């Protein structure tokens, strides 16, 4: 049984964690152009915000509630980022720059289901480089970065979010998972 004096701060704390987690996820989805998903999350978020803020404002003499409100914000931000990372919605552009022959890497990545575009370039410290461009589903990114870090540590790579892309081309030929699985991070 929870003591009566802790019930209000605990309610505020949990509500604030949930509300801030939802706001963090919503902000990421707004930035990625998922307007309907962001709007739906925003409705739930604002309802919980009214509850938690109302409880604090009507009980300003309860220092535990104020501290719970503040702490819930910080913890909710971290939890929201973790949840969004597990959902892995959307795509990223991976840019790999190699001063060596990239053909073994291209063959390896193609075999894993990644589509690759190769461009030739030159750099200030290297006469010729290969620039490999890939549009990768975020859910397949971890596997790629682990491979690059462990087996190709000399490569330079960057990763950027894709806000919008054409719907026509297939970018990834590996195993696809359903949106429900991605939503829950399975």
What features would you describe in this structure?
With 186 residues, the protein is α+β, with helices and mostly antiparallel strands. It has 2 domains: 4-87; 91-162, 2-Layer Sandwich (Alpha-Beta Plaits). Helix content is 55%, strand content 15%. It has 6 helices and 4 strands, in the order H-H-H-E-H-E-E-H-E-H. It has a 4-stranded antiparallel beta sheet with strand order 2-3-1-4, with no helix packed on it.
Give short descriptive properties of this protein:
single chain; 186 residues; alpha+beta; Alpha-Beta Plaits; 2 domains; four-stranded antiparallel beta sheet; 6 helices; 4 strands
What is the structure about, briefly put?
The protein has 186 residues and is α+β, with helices and mostly antiparallel strands. It has helices spanning 4-31, 35-57, 63-87, 103-111, 141-151, 179-184, and strands at 91-98, 117-121, 129-137, 156-161. A four-stranded antiparallel β-sheet has the order 2-3-1-4, with no helix packed on it.
State the order of secondary-structure elements, H for helix, E for strand. Answer: HHHEHEEHEH
> Strands of the biggest beta sheet: in what spatial order?
2-3-1-4
Using only C-alpha atoms, the radius of gyration works out to 22 Å
| Class of secondary structure makeup | alpha+beta
DSSP helix count?
A: 6
Number of strands: 4
Oligomer: single chain
Binned strand content: 15-25%
Q: Uncertain segments of ≥5 residues (pLDDT<50)? A: 182-186
Rounded mean pLDDT is 86
Shape: elongated
């Amino acid at each position: 049984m929870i003591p009566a004096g802790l019930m209000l701060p605990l309610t505020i704390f949990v509500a604030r964690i949930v509300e801030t987690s939802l706001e963090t996820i919503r902000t990421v989805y707004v930035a990625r152009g998922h307007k309907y998903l962001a709007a739906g999350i925003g409705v739930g978020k604002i309802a919980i915000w009214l509850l938690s803020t109302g409880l604090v404002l009507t009980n300003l003499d309860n220092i535990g509630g104020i501290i719970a409100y503040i702490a819930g914000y910080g913890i909710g931000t971290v939890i929201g980022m973790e949840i969004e990372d597990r959902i892995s919605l959307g795509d990223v552009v991976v840019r790999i720059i190699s001063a060596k022959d990239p053909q073994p890497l291209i063959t390896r990545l193609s075999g894993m289901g990644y589509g690759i575009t190769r461009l030739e370039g030159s750099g200030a410290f290297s006469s010729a480089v290969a620039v490999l461009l890939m549009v990768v589903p975020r859910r397949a990114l971890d596997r790629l970065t682990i491979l690059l870090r462990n087996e190709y540590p000399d490569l330079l790579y960057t990763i950027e979010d894709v806000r919008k892309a054409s719907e026509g081309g297939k970018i990834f030929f590996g195993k696809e998972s359903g949106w429900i699985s991605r939503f829950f991070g399975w």
